[in-house]
Amino acid sequence: MKRLKKLINHKLVQGCKFFGGRNNLGRITVRHRGCIIKRNNYIVDYKRSLINLSSIILYTRLIPKHSSAVALILYENGLFSFILNSNNLLKGKVITCNYFKNLSLGTYIPLHKAPYGTTVYNVELKLGFGGQIARSAGTFVKILNRFPNKYNKLLIQLKSGEQYLLNRNCGATLGIASNINHWLRNWKKANMSKKLGYRSSVRGIAMNPVDHPHGGRTNGGRPSVSPTGIIAKGKKTRHKKISNKVIFKRKNKIK
Length: 255
Prior knowledge:
Blueprint: H1 2-12, E1 13-15, E2 40-42, E3 55-61, E4 70-75, E5 80-84, E6 94-95, E7 108-110, E8 119-121, E9 141-147, E10 153-157, E11 163-167, E12 171-174, H2 190-195, E13 247-249
Antiparallel strand pairs: 1-2, 3-4, 3-6, 4-5, 7-12, 8-9, 8-12, 9-10, 10-11, 11-13
């Protein structure tokens, strides 16, 4: 077992660098980052490259940078891989890939093979890019409708209520992402968050006027802003513009 773990760690686990919120010039561009404990970067297969082979789950575990658990699987041809684990899939379960006969939990299939109302996760937005959405703990996407006469598109709905039109051949995994109780976890101490790389912050109103726009104990008079004067509340957070050809229905109506 030790030799097996060494072999897996050599190929599927790499060292991870942490820059503490600094850019290539050494200047802090993201505040309140640092003091993180040493951790590794696990190579997770979001594409399921070997989709025609059955596999067995050797063990499941939580890894850094992922809220959902991953599973180490062994394919029929002897290759190992880390995949995003589905809820209720435990050690020793066999994941079949023959989706023409049965659709079992944890199978990676094209979206058009899944029935209406099926919940899937690790969904591709662009064909061949691997899973891009619904990868966090407890997340899923619901299949609503198919449009075979409309450029072979398929309609899905996110948990936010937003609806997307995707290529019918995009891949997804059947089920719900594991670790659904992740949002209930309480870190209890600030030191636990500090080990994850999140340093404690100071309120702007507790600073001096030269350090923050809210400094000097002056309540009111202006909206909440960042130290550089950018509005902190109510500003749109979506930076990448998604084409209207993809979004079928937005979660909020644009006035």
